[in-house]
Amino acid sequence: MICLGIESTAHTFGVGIMENEEVLANITDMYIPSGGGIHPREAAEHHSRVCGNVLEEALEEADIERSDIDLVAFSKGPGLPPCLRTGAVFARSLALSLNAPIVGVNHCIAHIEIGKLKTGAVDPVTLYVSGGNTQVIALSAGKYRVFGEVLDTPVGNALDKFGREAGLEHPGGPKVEKLAKEGSKYIELPYTVKGMDMSFSGLMTEAVRKLKDERLVDVCHSLQETMFAMLTEAVERAMAHADKDEVLLTGGVAANKRLQKMLETMCEERDADFYTVPHELAGDNGAMMAWLGILKYRASGEDKLEETNFIQNWRTDDVEVEWNK
Ligand code: ATP
Ligand code: FE2
Fold this sequence. Notes:
single chain; 325 residues; Nucleotidyltransferase, domain 5; 12 strands
């Protein structure tokens, strides 16, 4: 079965094409804000401007015709309403013109399922860390339960904000990682884990304040050490609670080598397996939508067209995970 998947929840517009377990194409085009944070309407305008070209490029890369598509999948939520609407309208019109079935899928769960497919993880605790998300998720009683999440600013967003304050180029995450390698002094920063939930805003404010008296490289080093220790603690606690012995790291921040190392060390100590999703499939992309589309379609068939409206705050644990039964 060939499924075309569309991602449009936030910055990225993506079209991915999967033929069963194989990625045939995965093309993305990212909206870059003119300054400050994301403007949802501008992002949606970007998506409608590029969607035609991204589709054509994906078809060419996959070397298939439109008529070869058996199924259309799209990101139904959670996300920014104008962006979600643009993706849903595009998916609906494509499915109608092809007379193909359509399925709407959950963005966070798509990250997990493509990660499992590509790494071989079977039943992991997933740490999903990106610009807009920080969640610790594991399958429990037929649903992906969120064991822990950020209470304020998500990791990627926090790193990007810090980067702006420190005069670094956007996105700040990779720049902080590079600078942190040259730092060595550990500066004490606020560490806030409540159960398995985390808060980063106090930590960020204090890190920005430290820039006045400390070297940038030492602040970057201390910021990473503190943040990633908090994430690692939350993941370790979730493993004990949910009784899991695998960890899957995904989302844009998964690219960070120091975060990978800390989680890997924790897993070694627990005799657990650690997996990182390859970069091209860890950030937002269309292939993960296509893969979850295939899983969902195999388990429960297509969506009715009138059920394809987006769900802005679609919670991970609202989704019945029929395909894992
Ligand atoms: P989502 O919609 O899932 O929240 P997103 O729009 O934030 O995703 P992603 O590509 O998943 O997009 O993630 C981008 C984030 O990842 C940015 O905040 C960026 O700073 C961060 N990031 C990328 N590489 C690194 C790195 N090496 N270290 C730390 N953070 C990183
Ligand atoms: Fe995402």
